[in-house]
Amino acid sequence: MKRSIVFAYIGFFIMLGAIVSGFIWGNFLEEGAVITSVLWGNISLIDIYVGFLIFIAWVVYRERSVLLTIVWVIAVLVLGNLTTCLYLILAFYQSGGNIDKFFKGRHAA
């Protein structure tokens, strides 16, 4: 599980750097329009959001608090895999190394 935490941290910092650099040097509206104007841009967005929905389903299953679940869902849809990496990091620590608790959260025995 320690390797998984390392990969989640790496993913978090890569995404943080990518998002920050995108907002500093990119133009979200113009470049977003280019992405959505081509077929493979749309396919990529569909692929990403299907992955987000699968991850969100796990968060909904795992979490106890409805309010916290809503916050996580919004964060995933807005910040993408930056949020998924952060959620994984927190879930690793909360599980205390118990893989059943990691995957099942509130449903763990």
* Beta strands, count: 0
Overall shape: it is globular
Any idea how many domains?
1
**Helix vs. strand class:** mainly alpha
Distance from N terminus to C terminus (CA atoms, Å) equals 19 Å
Major β-sheet annotation: none
**Contiguous uncertain segments of 5+ residues:** none
Give the number of helices.
6
**Kindly state the mean pLDDT as a whole number?**
95
Specify the oligomeric state. Answer: single chain
List descriptors.
84% helix; 6 helices; 109 residues; mainly alpha
Walkthrough of the structure:
The chain has 109 residues and is mainly alpha-helical. It has one domain. The chain is 84% helix and 0% strand. The protein has 6 helices and no strands. Helix 1 runs antiparallel to helix 5, helix 3 packs antiparallel against helix 4 and helix 4 crosses helix 5. It is globular, with a radius of gyration of 16 Å. The protein starts with a helix and ends in a 5-residue tail after the last helix. The mean pLDDT is 95.
Brief summary:
With about 110 residues, this protein is mostly helical. The chain contains 6 helices and no strands.
